[in-house]
Design goal:
By secondary structure, the protein is mostly helical. Helices cover 70% and strands 0% of the residues. Helix 1 crosses helix 4, helix 5 crosses helix 11 and helix 9 runs antiparallel to helix 11. InterPro entries: Homeodomain-like_sf, HTH-type_TetR-like_transc_reg, HTH_TetR, Tet_transcr_reg_TetR-rel_C_sf, TetR_C_Proteobacteria.
Length: 231
Amino acid sequence: MTTAIVPDTLPPPVSLPRGHEAKRASILDAAGSVFCREGFAGANIDLIAAEAGVSRQTVYNHHGDKQTLFQAVVRDLTERSNAGVFATLATFPDQPKDIEADLIAFCMRLNRNCVCNREGKFLRKLMQAESERYPELFSEWRDHGPAKTWSALAARLARLAHAGYLDIDDPDVAARQFLALANADLHMTFLLGGTPSEAEVLSSATNGMRAFLRAYGTARCVAEKPQPAAV
């Protein structure tokens, strides 16, 4: 029996929708679920309205037509995803005691909170199904989502390099490779529509960070790694 992955930080309890902004948020939440489940072509305003518990006219009043609503869903998911990413980046090990163990733990938090969570799952499904239909929209997502993550992570890796833990020529390239390695072993599970187990997330983070440190680690990584106690 596998243990399902659970985000480190859970969102606050959802209160009953009240007022203009709460209704708007409720519609976006319902629309995200419907678009991911049915695809753009299979979704319709009536289905979204029913799932949100509002009238068809309320959906139109808040978001206009289906295409405009879809665009709003992608932007909303990107904003939510960014919030989780930057909250997790705040826990990056700037002063590691055991750089391998600390980076593995960080990658597990990143995968739990930003890749395996609802927003990450929905964004992957929408991109896979609709990126050809909306290339400009997903270019916007790339610039406001992953590009910001790459830049923020690159700055943190550069600080580790300055401290002597890493040997990096181009922090931007290293940041993209770091993120690719962190969840490389999870891609097949995602492709098949599954949710990785805790053991799979640990294995992916471990394999990814060991590969990253083989590429970028310095002698200091080995010298400062805690050694097992003598028997």
